[in-house]
Design goal:
The structure holds 2 protein chains of 2 kinds. Chain A contains no helices and 10 strands. By secondary structure, chain A is mainly beta. Chain A has 2 domains: about 50 residues, no CATH class; about 70 residues. In chain A, the strands form 2 sheets. In chain A, strands 1, 2, 3, 4 and 5 form a 5-stranded antiparallel beta sheet that branches. In chain A, a hairpin with a 6-residue loop joins strand 9 and strand 10. Chain B has 2 domains: about 140 residues, Thiolase/Chalcone synthase (Peroxisomal Thiolase, Chain A, domain 1); about 230 residues, Peroxisomal Thiolase, Chain A, domain 1. Classes of the chains: A mainly beta, B alpha/beta.
C-alpha cells in the first residue's frame, strides 16, 4: 500500500497508520508543524527534514463547543494536544469524557457534505481506550 | 518625523442592520469624521480601508476600499485595502499615522467597516474560522470562541479564577454600553444573567462572548500644521506598534507578544505604565480582559480577576477598561473594532464621552491605550496592534 498524503498535513503510512507531517530543522533542531522548508526559529532555508509525528498525544486543554462552523455537528470538543517533541496542535477530540492529561490517538475520518456532496478527508484525535484517567 | 493628531472621528452604531449596505455604513462613518474634523474632504490625501470579511460574506473582493469609499465621494487618492483579521482596524490606523508622520501626506483617513449579518450565522462563524491556517485546521471546527475558552480554562487553572469573575467583566461592560449610543447591546446584565445564558464554549457563556455585528468607524489623522489650522490639536498619537504572532516556546518561558510589544512601545515613546489612565482592550471574550491588563504590565500576573471585584476597571475605578462597552457589549464588526477603539479614547480625551466620561482626580484623563488583536497562526494570535493616545 502506498502512502496517502493530504495537503502536506497528514499521511497514512504503508502500515495504514495515520501521522501528522512535521519537520525538523537540521540547523537548530526545532520542530515545526505544519512542516516547513524554512525554519522559523533560525531562518535556515532548505535544511529541514520531514518527520512523521503525532500518532499519539496528550490533551493539554479542551473545551466543548455548542456552536459550530459549517459541516461540524454540535456539541464537539476542540482542544490543544501535545504530541512528540512537545509540539502543540489544535484539533478536534472525540471520546465520551475528555479531560486534561488524557491519552489520545490520531484518527483519519471522511465526511461528505450534505450540500455539495464533496468528500472531506480529515484528521482528529480520539481518546485512547483505557487511556483516560 | 511629523507629530500626528487625531482630528476627526465618526461611527455608525454597531448592531444588526439588515437594510444597511457596506456603502451606507462606510459613508456614514466617514462623513461623521469629516464633519467632526471640520475639514474640506478634498484635503484628505490617503485612505486605509479596514475590512476582513466582505469577500467571504458579501462577495466583494480585491478593491473594497475603492468601491465603498467612491460611494463616500473619494476618487484618485491612494486607497490601501487592509486585512488583518480582528486587528485590521489598528493596522489601518497605524498606517494612516505612518503616512502622516513620514511627511508623505498631511491628512489621512482610516476607515473600518464590516457587515456580518448576512442571514446565515453559520456562514459568518465559518468565515471567522478562516482567520487561521486553513490547511492545518481544515475539518477541526476552528472557532475563536473555543480558542478564548481554552485560554480562559488555563487562566482559571493557573490563578484560581472562576466563571463568576468573567461574568463580572461582562456585567461591567454591559453597564458601560448602556451609556454608549453606538453600542449593540444597551441592556444592563447581572452576573446571574451572564452565568445563566447558554453555554457557547465551556466555560464561556453567550453573554461572555462578543456578538456578530454590522458597523463602521472612521478616524482622520493630520500633521501638527493642519491640526492647528483646524483647531483640532487636542489628541496626539503618542505611538503605535504592530506585531505578528510569535513562535511557540515548548518551555513556555517567553513573555507574551502583548508584553513584548507594549514594553517596546512604552520604551520608544518614553512613558511609564502608570501614565495610562484608561484602556480599550480586545475582549472578543470577556475572559481575556484579565490577560490583556496583566500582559500590558498594568497589574501583576494573576491579580486582575480579583481587582474586577473591587470595581478597579469600572468607569469610576482606578483603571477604567472598555468604557465603550468593549467588544462584548458594544459589538465586534471585525474590521471596524480597532478603529472604534481609537474613536472611544479620542472622545474620552476630549471630554466628549458624556455619561461614560472618565475622570482622573476630577480632571479629564491624559492618556489612553488601545489593544487590538486578530487571527491565529500556529499557537499564537496572528496580529497585535497597540496604540497610545494623549492629550
Amino acid at each position: 500500500m502506498e502512502n496517502i498524503r493530504e495537503q502536506n498535513i497528514f499521511l497514512i503510512d504503508k502500515k495504514g497508520k495515520p501521522n501528522l507531517i512535521g519537520s525538523k530543522c537540521l540547523g537548530c533542531d526545532h520542530m515545526s508543524f505544519p512542516a516547513k522548508e524554512v525554519c522559523p526559529y533560525c531562518m535556515t532555508n532548505g535544511r529541514s527534514e520531514e518527520i512523521l509525528i503525532g500518532k499519539l498525544g496528550i490533551v493539554v486543554s479542551a473545551t466543548t463547543c455548542h456552536t459550530a462552523p459549517k459541516g461540524i455537528q454540535v456539541p464537539y470538543t476542540l482542544g490543544t494536544i501535545e504530541i512528540d517533541y512537545g509540539v502543540h496542535v489544535l484539533a478536534q477530540i472525540t471520546g465520551n469524557t475528555i479531560r486534561k492529561g488524557d491519552k489520545v490517538e490520531l484518527v483519519i475520518y471522511s465526511s461528505v457534505s450534505v450540500e455539495s456532496a464533496e468528500e472531506t478527508i480529515g484528521w482528529k484525535y480520539q481518546i485512547v481506550e483505557g487511556g483516560g484517567q | 518625523m511629523e507629530k500626528v493628531y487625531v482630528i476627526g472621528v465618526g461611527m455608525h452604531p454597531f448592531g444588526r442592520f439588515l437594510d444597511k449596505s457596506l456603502k451606507y455604513l462606510t459613508r456614514h462613518a466617514v462623513w461623521e469624521a469629516i464633519q467632526d474634523a471640520g475639514i474640506d474632504p478634498k484635503k484628505v490625501e490617503m485612505a486605509y480601508f479596514s475590512n476582513s470579511f466582505a469577500g467571504a460574506l458579501n462577495g466583494q473582493h480585491s478593491v473594497r476600499g475603492q468601491i465603498y469609499l467612491r460611494d463616500a465621494g473619494f476618487s484618485e487618492i491612494p486607497i490601501i485595502n487592509v486585512e488583518n483579521a480582528c486587528a485590521s482596524g489598528s493596522t489601518a490606523f497605524q498606517h494612516a499615522c505612518l503616512a502622516v508622520s513620514s511627511g508623505q501626506v498631511g491628512v489621512a483617513i482610516a476607515v473600518g467597516v464590516e457587515k456580518m449579518f448576512v442571514g446565515d450565522n453559520t456562514k459568518t462563524i465559518t468565515a471567522l474560522g478562516s482567520a487561521g491556517d486553513v490547511e492545518a485546521t481544515k475539518g477541526q471546527g476552528l472557532q475563536f470562541t473555543a480558542l478564548y475558552a481554552l485560554k480562559a480554562l488555563n487562566y482559571m487553572e493557573e490563578y484560581g479564577a472562576t466563571p463568576y469573575h468573567f461574568a463580572k467583566v461582562a456585567e461591567k461592560n454591559s453597564e458601560n454600553a448602556v451609556l454608549n449610543p453606538f453600542a449593540q447591546f444597551r441592556k444592563k446584565l447581572s452576573v446571574e444573567d451572564v452565568l445563566n445564558s447558554r453555554m457557547i464554549a465551556d466555560p464561556l457563556t453567550l453573554y461572555m462572548c462578543s456578538p456578530i455585528a454590522d458597523g463602521s468607524a472612521a478616524v482622520i489623522v493630520a500633521n501638527e500644521k493642519v491640526a492647528n489650522q483646524l483647531g483640532q490639536a487636542q489628541v496626539h498619537v503618542k505611538g503605535s506598534i504592530l506585531k505578528s504572532g510569535q513562535l511557540y516556546d515548548p518551555n513556555n518561558k517567553q513573555p507574551s507578544m502583548i508584553t513584548k510589544a507594549s514594553n517596546e512601545l512604552f520604551e520608544k515613546i518614553g512613558i511609564g505604565h502608570s501614565d495610562i489612565n484608561m484602556l480599550e482592550v480586545h475582549d472578543a471574550a470577556v475572559s481575556v480582559e484579565f490577560e490583556h491588563i496583566e500582559d500590558l504590565g498594568l497589574l501583576p500576573k494573576g491579580t486582575a480577576f480579583q481587582e474586577i471585584l473591587e470595581g478597579t476597571f469600572s468607569l469610576s475605578g482606578k483603571l477604567p477598561v472598555n468604557m465603550s462597552g468593549g467588544l462584548t457589549s458594544k459589538g465586534h464588526p471585525v474590521g471596524a473594532s480597532g478603529v472604534a477603539q481609537i474613536v472611544e479614547i479620542t472622545k474620552q480625551l476630549r471630554g466628549e464621552a458624556k455619561e461614560r466620561q472618565v475622570y482622573k482626580n476630577g480632571k479629564l484623563p491624559l492618556t489612553g491605550l488601545c489593544l487590538n488583536t486578530g487571527g491565529r497562526v500556529e499557537d499564537d494570535r496572528a496580529a497585535y496592534g497597540i496604540t497610545i493616545l494623549s492629550r
